[in-house]
Amino acid sequence: MQQRHENRKAYFQELAATSELHFLPYIHRFTSVTPQSRILEIGCGEGGNLVPFARLSCRVTGIDLSENRIRQARQFFQEEGLPATFIASDIFQITQLEEAFDIILIHDVIEHISGKCRFLEHIKRFLAPGGILFVSFPAWQMPFGGHQQICRNRCVSRLPFIHLLPAGAYGNLLHRFGESQARIEELLDIQECRTSIELFEKLLSTSRYRVLHKQFWFINPHYEQKFHLKPRKLPRLIGSIPHLRNFFCTSCFYLIQS
């Protein structure tokens, strides 16, 4: 496991930096972001992605299933002197919020959700008229699309493509490397919920979303914070080839509208 996954404040700061340098400018190309903007992040974790929006005096709200992550989010935002609302809940248990939102962030979340179509339909109720969603996720077949970097065993956490093994073989491999049963179940759940570009675009069509823009990345913009690598867009030719592109796309950015 990388140290950044255990040092949650450092992870929070990394996400805040990536959001400020890449997410916010990307969104701002297609919609205005002002102090009047209402921002919601679903699956917010400690809330790092919301920091640059809060610094612009936007009204920010974060929702996460983990009560511990929400406690940390409140603590970190208090330390930063930034106002925000954080809610610990399953998003499917929330049918109404106090306000509708101009921008909804869904970063590295959709690949963890089994009922993706239900999810995309459910969150429409939180969008203000003309509101947009920013969705980002790693293409499933990319080298670490299974999030195996969260493994505690240093060797297995650095093995690319092992998540593409059949579930039985993958689970046995993780067990042999000493991963806990809870970790194995988490990684197998990610495998079951895997999200390719083709699947996501089919879901958008089924759920009647319109794609405003999409950007595929060969080097994920967040790698600038993690590994000091300069972000690189996926060459357009590779990005146009269905299925093959998933092996090279470390992050997919979508701006969509209902």
From TrEMBL:
Molecular-function GO term, any one: methyltransferase activity
Domain Methyltransferase: 39-131
Full protein name: Methyltransferase domain-containing protein
Source organism: Bacteroides stercorirosoris
GO biological process: one example: methylation
Pfam annotation, one family: Methyltransf_25
Keywords: Methyltransferase, Transferase
UniProt cross-references to InterPro entries, sorted A to Z: Methyltransf_25 (IPR041698), SAM-dependent_MTases_sf (IPR029063)
